[in-house]
# Entry
Amino acid sequence: MDLSFREILSYASKKSGLKLDGYRESYLRRRIELRMRILGLKDFSDYFKFIKNNESEIDELVNAIAINVTEFMRDRSPFDYFMQKILPELARKRNGILRFWSAGCANGEEPYSIAIAVLETLPNRNFSIYATDIDEDCLKKALEGIYEKEQLKNLSKEHLDKYFEKIGDKYRIKDFVKRHVRFKKHDLTSQEPITKFLDAIFCRNVMIYFDEKQKEKILENFYNALNSGGYLIVGKSESIPKGKFECVSVSEKIYRKV
Ligand SMILES: C[S@@+](CC[C@H](N)C(=O)[O-])C[C@H]1O[C@@H](n2cnc3c(N)ncnc32)[C@H](O)[C@@H]1O
# Structure
């Protein structure tokens, strides 16, 4: 690793508090190079000088690293599987409140999608969703719960009317959905799981940024946080190594704690 690249990482980490050592080096390089291209800078040493003289660049870089692209019911089919198979099974097997965690929840689309899925499938069941992200701006947006139509394209018109109120050309999630979700700032790379005894964890399109060692640590935390037989749902392009989880759906990337 060249010196300026390392200096950028340690400077950005110190200033922002974001722990960067668990991220894949190739990923961090690409994200810094993206910022360099935007700023018209040629090499890492120029970027290091720039970031030291421009405080606001720290936020820009952190945002570029913790990308928060998302949408409601992203990729749709894992949510269909969740509604058709997982929720009915949990309803049969578990008494009391059902508990879910959206880890890396971005602007709230994922936890609210989980809430909609449960309300649709088990309308009389008590449930809670913990939703965490490292990015405070995301969490603020998530709490506001106001979305553009584009974010909602995977939802039917019926669900839009039922779960959102229209304000101008935007959509606000209704309070009866919101009250099931608790948002909290949490760093997956350095903090213990937010809670335990969970029935399912959604951690989709987050672990792709981390190196194998970091991923292993996070998976261990997820394992400890789940109930026996609890589910872990990862992103479409992700997979997790054989071991503590068995794969229950290859195409939907759904795993179960064994
Ligand atoms: C691409 S979004 C995924 C959102 C959603 N899970 C989905 O699949 O649509 C990745 C999210 O992970 C969050 N993230 C990145 N690093 C993180 C970390 N160390 N701890 C917690 N969240 C993190 C980002 O802030 C971002 O909101």
About this structure: Residues 66-70, 74, 104, 106, 110, 133-135, 138, 187-189, 204-206, 209, 235 surround S-adenosylmethionine (CB under 6 Å). The chain is about 45% helix and 20% strand. The chain has a mean pLDDT of 94.
